[in-house]
Design a protein that fits this description.
Blueprint: H1 4-7, H2 11-14, E1 19-24, E2 30-34, H3 44-51, H4 54-65, E3 73-76, E4 81-86, E5 92-97, H5 103-124
Antiparallel strand pairs: 1-2, 1-5, 3-4, 4-5
Length: about 120
């Protein structure tokens, strides 16, 4: 079970809007943050499990395509706009927002959440 410090690690970054952030490890575990669905249920563990290994796969794809290191993936989906960035330990920082939230803002939140994830990891180390 995550402590409150981990649970609310991204609170000042995401604010009160229709967005959330998670720090996921490479094994498919939530390290920090919370992702509540429309009914208020935390689905962070399910999302983390589904995204386990995504950083490694993105790294592999970029290597095969000779495009350099991956920095972000942005997805427009039916129920949410997602943005992912690599974390410093092989994990992923994820930001999700309602489809009505502009992608530029989601990308900006991802940058802020990535910086916050790094700072949070230093705080708990």
């Amino acid at each position: 079970m995550m402590n409150d410090h981990a649970l609310y690690a991204f609170e000042e970054v995401i604010g009160d809007g229709e967005q959330t952030a998670l720090l996921l490890d490479h094994k498919g575990n939530v390290r920090a943050g919370v992702y509540l669905d429309s009914s208020g249920r935390d689905v962070g563990d399910e999302i983390a499990f589904a995204l386990a290994g995504v950083s490694m796969e993105a790294t592999r794809a970029m290597r095969h395509l000779a495009l350099g290191e991956w920095r972000a993936i942005v997805c427009e989906c039916t129920y949410a706009n997602l943005a992912l960035a690599p974390a410093d330990d092989g994990g992923v920082v994820l930001v999700a927002a309602a489809p009505s939230v502009p992608n530029g803002f989601v990308r900006r939140l991802l940058d802020m959440a990535s910086r916050r994830a790094l700072a949070w990891r230093r705080e708990v180390a």
